[in-house]
Every structure is written in structure tokens, then in C-alpha cells.
Amino acid sequence: MIVLNGGSSSGKSGIARCLQSVLPDAWLTLGTDTLIEAMPASGAGIDLAPDGSVTVGPAFRELERAWIAGVAAMAAAGAKVVVDEVFLGGAESQCRWRTALHGLDVLWVGVRCDAETAAAREVARGNRITGMAAQQAELVHKGVTYDVVVDTTRTEALDCAREIARHVP
Amino acid sequence: MIVLNGGSSSGKSGIARCLQSVLPDAWLTLGTDTLIEAMPASGAGIDLAPDGSVTVGPAFRELERAWIAGVAAMAAAGAKVVVDEVFLGGAESQCRWRTALHGLDVLWVGVRCDAETAAAREVARGNRITGMAAQQAELVHKGVTYDVVVDTTRTEALDCAREIARHVP
Amino acid sequence: MIVLNGGSSSGKSGIARCLQSVLPDAWLTLGTDTLIEAMPASGAGIDLAPDGSVTVGPAFRELERAWIAGVAAMAAAGAKVVVDEVFLGGAESQCRWRTALHGLDVLWVGVRCDAETAAAREVARGNRITGMAAQQAELVHKGVTYDVVVDTTRTEALDCAREIARHVP
Amino acid sequence: MIVLNGGSSSGKSGIARCLQSVLPDAWLTLGTDTLIEAMPASGAGIDLAPDGSVTVGPAFRELERAWIAGVAAMAAAGAKVVVDEVFLGGAESQCRWRTALHGLDVLWVGVRCDAETAAAREVARGNRITGMAAQQAELVHKGVTYDVVVDTTRTEALDCAREIARHVP
Hints:
Structural class of chain A: alpha/beta
Largest sheet of chain A: 5 strands, parallel
Strand content of chain A: 15-25%
Helix content of chain A: 40-55%
Order of helices and strands of chain A: EHEHEEHEHEHHEH
Oligomer: homotetramer
Number of strands of chain A: 7
Distance between the termini of chain A: 10 Å
Strand order of the largest sheet of chain A: 2-5-1-6-7
Radius of gyration of chain A: 15 Å
């Protein structure tokens, strides 16, 4: 199992797709985006303010806890999974995942990108709301520990993926 | 947990979104589309022929088995989940889910739609490849048993969802 | 040229795709959605309120005027075009199009759908903001004149398209 | 009017969105993707082979000619338009646009990206079919003349957009 953690527009999804391409075997990619897509359109306790800050309520926390348990169970059942995550709570978020993934082989990967570059890429993606990239660039790595750290500021997603793949047993 | 089973273009996804709107509490919707989206772009053992027939290989079966185990674990961990599924193997597919969901409260829902109407809706969705709707309309229900059956041929998704919601404890 | 006018969730886009499938020759489909997609993410003078009402400012009007002129020029240059439109201003909107399309062969098509049914389909589409369907169901037809009127409340998009196709010279 | 020309995965779309953000006034972005989206699902004479090579037939050429005339008319009617294009025919493609845009103020922009880097980004985008990026990287610039050339290999889209914006009157 590979857990990618990085802020919005840091390039995690591109790395995840590249990992699926360079790794032997078929890997699934699941992550925050999958969970949000699965939630009711009304939102279920996650809110995005006009300045790009994200607030998460208890209803979302409950769903997320079950989601993490489910992804862990997929891995335990033999699926190779790339998790594409945003640790909004930093070390605390990692702790939640670490507990759920106990006993599984996990490669923790930090996906870094300079705040300014991530903000520029957010504009290039045409998001209606901007600000998330800059706000999350440092926040999500606070107190988190990694096996590998890649930085997309000056390295292509495919090269980052190759570097990560070297650490996959 | 609610498991919706129906062929392509039978209207399952619309019903799932309506269920998320009419049911109290926040329900997650996960399904075949989520799994396929999570797989490598190269496909991992699921192939769609130009006539709309779908062939599934052993690599896909392996991933699917782990996927089902994971979705079951989410429900066991307390998440309310609508599963939006296509039982390509009919009774055998249901059996796989039934085994994984053992001990959980499950409402089995058949989503029917006349083959001709489903094929017409497939054209309206603008899919590049057509034929799936007609081929799957009967196939996916073969030998499957349900708690509720709805038919979208002449009933709106929202009304189907309300009918299903009446059976949710 | 075929101009489809109807409210949000009335089924215009599905009819447009079916027309592209049933008509001989290759037809382009362009419409309000194309224009909005082409605009800056910041919006350029079109606003969607939480109750589903749409407000259009002068900046949008300017772009729309040029957009209509361009679509007319495509048709004049020989392209067969299905226009998928929402006449928020009713007769006045039609007038703007009629002026631009002067001299071209145009089939004006009203796409109707009961307000309640359109609102139900809006829920099934999982839009974050609901209310547009109900608000626009009557509004967009006010004072507009048609060559053909179809009603998607109880007729599939493909059958509506076949009915429209019978009026295409 | 700004015409961006570059191969698949060269970063044109990101630059177009950044231009919409950095330029004063509201600019529309239209391009090859808009045209392909507007065409029938069956394709209308444009084919993508498994190796990523694109073949264009006479039906597509006809639609494209009308499309170009229409975009030119939008600009003539006062719209500020960023055209996001792939000159598959190199100088010949530019010639077609140049003729249609005669009399309009046009900034011709080449968007370059090393073939290897574009190919890497194609993998990161998760396209089912790869090969287009590498094949088009040089091809689309053959014999084309520009007012500005940007290179996304080592420059962010937002910086490229700022460089281009300096040349907009």
C-alpha cells in the first residue's frame, strides 16, 4: 500500500496515475476525491469557503473513519492500493490512517510543492475557488513522517513516481 | 446498506443520487463506476468490445473481490452505503456480494428498465460505444433475488428512490 | 439549423445527442453550456444563487451577443448546428437569435417538461444547487414561438429527436 | 485574439485558463477540444489510433472550416477569444486560420514542450491512449510562425501566460 499525502494542486493525482503505469501489477487509486464524489451533493459536513479554507464537521469525520476502515480492508484482502490523501489534520490524520492500516505494509510518501507553484497550478486548473493550494502546502505535512518525500516543484510526476516505485518492495 | 443492481443505462446512478437526497443521514454511493475509475487507465482486465459486450478477466476479478471486502468493511464500520452495481454474472455476482456482506443489514434492489428504453437512453447519453444497455437489461437480473424491484421505464428516478426508501429500516 | 429551447433539466442535451445520432450528416451541438465552459472560471457576469435563480450581467450579455454571431457564422459557412439553449429572457432571447440567424434555415424547437418532473430529474443529476429546473420550466417559453414542440415528461429523448428529425428538410 | 498552438499535453489549456485569469476583461477559450466535444459521439471523421496518431477525414475538415469561420465571426463581433489549437497540418493549418482571421488583431503563440516531458505528462493525465504527446510535439510547429513562443518544459503555465499577456495590446 502506498499513501500519498500532499496539499491541493501539489500533483498527487498525477503521481498516482504514473504509479499505476510504472508499477507491475494492477494498483487501485482511491482518495479524498473518491470519498467526496461518493458523498451526497449537499456535502455531508465538508465545506469550502470562498478563500479556499476547508472546514470539516463531525458527519464527515464519521464517514471518513468508515472509509479508511474500508480501504484498509481492501488492502488486507489483497488489493494493491495507492491512497491519494490530503492530511488536513497533519500528524493527527496520519495517526488515523496508521491505526487503520496496522499490520499492513505501507509506504508513506510526502508530496511537496512550493506554495507559490501550487497556487499557480491551481489557477491553471481553472478552479472556481482558489486559495486551497497555498493554504494546504505546509499545513498537511505538519508532524507527518514519511518513507519517501518527492517534490513536484521542479520534478515531473512521472519521475516522482519512478522514485517512489524504487521503494515499493 | 442498499445494493442497487441493474444494467447499463437502467437509471441506477440517478436513483442513487435521489436516495442520497431523500434519506435522512448521509449515505455514500459507491459502485462499479468507482472501481473502474480507480483502476489503471490500461484497464486491468476489463474490456468493452465495439458491440457493447463486456469481458472480465481474472485480474479484474481479484481486484473486485478486494473491493467488495472493502465496501463491506465500510458498512461494518458504520457507514451507510448505496452500492450501484452491475451483476454481469447474475446470481453468481449476487452470491459474491452476499457472502461479503454476511451479518450486515442489506436491502437488495432490482433496477429494471425495458431493453429498448435503456438502449434509447444510452444514445441520449452520447456514449461512443452503444449496445451495453440492450445486452445487460435482462442478463444482470438472471437468478438474482430482491427485496424491492423498481422499473425506471415509466417511473422517475426520484419516485423509485422514494419507493426504495420506504423499505429502509 | 435546429434551435432547442428549454429549461434546465428539461432534457435538451439528451435530445441533441439523439439528433446527432438519428440525423444523416454530422451535426455539431453547441449551446449555453459550451459558452459557460468557455468563460473564465470567475464567471464573467453570470451568477447562480443558492435558490437556483440565474442573474446575468452586461459582461455576459456582450459575450453572448458575439457568441450568437459566431454560431450563426458557422451555420452560414455550411455547418449543420444543433443549438442547445435556455431562453432566460423568453421572447426577447429568441429575438436576439432570430436577428442573428436571419437568412438561415432554422427549425425552432420547444423542449417542454413538467416543472415537477424536471425538478425530480435535477435531483437525480446530483446538482449541488437545485431550483433551476422548477424556476425555468415555464419562464423560458414565455412568448417564444416554435415549429415543433416536444415534451420529455413522458416521451424518451430519442423519440423526441425522431419527431424533430421529421421536420428537418 | 490569441491563438495558442501546441501538441497534446504541451500545456495549452492550462495557459489558456491562466490567461483568462491574468488578462483584464473576460476572454473566452475555445479550441479543438470544444469542436470535438460538439461533434457526434460517432466521431465525424476524426480517428485516434492505438499508437496515438490522429487521422482526419474530409467530414471533419468541412466542420472545422465552418468552426474556424464561426470563431472568427465571434472575434469580429467583439469577443476576446483565446483559441487553444493543435495545428496537425503545421503551416497549412495556420494558413487556414490566418485566412479566416484576416483583418483581426491576432497574437500567434507557440506552446512548446520537450517531447519526452509532454509524454510524461500524458501518462500523469491518465489517458487511455498514449503516444499523441510525443508524436505531436514537433509536428504541429512545422513551418508555423509566431509572435511569441513559450516553453512549458521548465516554466509554469501561469508564468507563460504572464509572458504572453505582455504582448497583448
